[in-house]
Amino acid sequence: MAATIEELNLKDLSNSHPGDIADVISGLNEKERILAFLLLPGELKAEVFTYFNYTKQEDLLKKLGSVDTAEMLENMAPDDRTEIFENFPDLLIKESINLLSPEEKSIALNLLGYPEKSIARLMTPYYIQAKKGWTVRQALDHIKKYGKKAETLNHLYVVDKNNHLVDDIRIGRLLMAEEEDKVESLMDYQFVSLTTTMSRDEAIELFDKYDRAVMPVVSESGVLVGIVTFDDIIDEIEKRDTEDIQKFGGLEALELSYTDTPLLTLVRKRASVLIILFMGEMLTASAMGYFEEELAQAVVLALFIPLIISSGGNSGSQAATLIVRAMAISELGLRDWWYVMRKEVLSGLLLGIILGGFGFLRIMVWQQAGFYDYGEYASLIGATVGLSLIGIVLWGTLTGSMIPFLLRRLGMDPATSSAPFVATLVDVTGLIMYFTIAASILSGTLL
To answer: Its biological function (predicted)?
Structure first.
């Protein structure tokens, strides 16, 4: 049941974390949610707004007056504001941007002008820069004057007369230097930066590689235009991983969270992939129809079809999961396909021998214990199942590990090699392999 405005102590609430405040206000009914939000202080209002989901953000903007909206957007960090605008209808974006001051409006339009998935959409133009000819005292005075609005004070960014980035200096090193020292004396001209056109996935890799909390963003010509902080990167990692998990689970990625996605949209996202998988499974029925005569002669073979196809599908799904994740964290690249193939062939063979051995022993134990009578050719049936499992698990492992490389080579997301897709592919080929082996071993006996 939703809380009421009377039950909340907004004065105490304002001392809480913005995310916690957003959770509490979200639990109110619609009218009281707006009232509680309006009662928050200006700067806190902007912070809390970024923690609402997109549906509540859009609803609040539509119901707030232009004065309140303008104040909130003015106080919001440019990167947070850009992320919010990305998910709003064009008309609402236009109306919101027009409420900003000329300075903030220019920043917002500049950020929105970059490609949709570029790292520039996440950057903020609020940082501290200095010239290499300054003294440490001048740099510190500059920080005191302009540092309050900066997103972070981890680094001082040194630029030349054309605003090209030439180095970044940790603030701690600046504080330990003598005030009369030149900034240039602290420079080693070694820095790592992102470019405005770089994709967010590429930026995530660089943050991980260099273990940075903040990185500068430069234009193609090297001009410093902003910085990106790790909190923004963490949000992107979460979005990327969520999308990959959804794709790998056998559905199209959702644009909104599960709770905010409309029912019909959720059904459409899932149905499209299910239809493709269903058409693939129809090939399984076709394969069984092709071997109908063999099944009629040796009905006992049908008992092990679920065992055979599930083992191949499971081994393929395991391999695909391992490789897709290794690719996602840059542990594997395209050039590693041969290494992976060799490793997975051995892994698949050993796993197949283990499962094949269990399959053979299961049939023989059941036969000897009298749990089921497989007839006089029980050992041949056991050999058929055992050898089939070796072949199918090996094939499933190899298929599951190689499909992500194939998709990456074609410029597609490896995560689309979903576990259901791999399992469906192995199901069909596994049945063909099973009946082919059975025809070879049982020819002249049961067949």
So the answer is: Acts as a magnesium transporter.
Q: Looking at 113, 146, 179, which one is the last position of a domain? A: 113
**Three-class SS of the chain:** CCECHHHCCHHHHCCCCHHHHHHHHHCECHHHHHHHHHCCCHHHHHHHHCCCCHHHHHHHHHHCCHHHHHHHHHHCCHHHHHHHHHCCCHHHHHHHHCCCCHHHHHHHHHHHCCCCCEHHHHCECCCCEEECCCEHHHHHHHHHHHHHHCCCCCEEEEECCCCEEEEEEEHHHHHHCCCCCEHHHHCCCCCCCEECCCEHHHHHHHHHHHCCCEEEEECCCCEEEEEEEHHHHHHHHHHHHHHHHHHHCCCCCCCCCCCCCCHHHHHHHHHHHHHHHHHHHHHHHHHHHHCHHHHHHCHHHHHHHHHHHHHHHHHHHHHHHHHHHHHHCCCCCHHHHHHHHHHHHHHHHHHHHHHHHHHHHHHHHHHHHCCCCCCCCHHHHHHHHHHHHHHHHHHHHHHHHHHHHHHHHCCCCHHHCCHHHHHHHHHHHHHHHHHHHHHHHCCCCCC
Please indicate, yes or no, if residue 237 is contained in any of the structural domains: no
Q: What are the tens digits of pLDDT across the range 121-174?
A: 888 888 899 998 999 999 999 899 888 878 888 899 999 988 899 999 999 999
Find the domain containing 177 and state its range. Answer: 129-229
**Pair (76, 40) in one structural domain:** yes
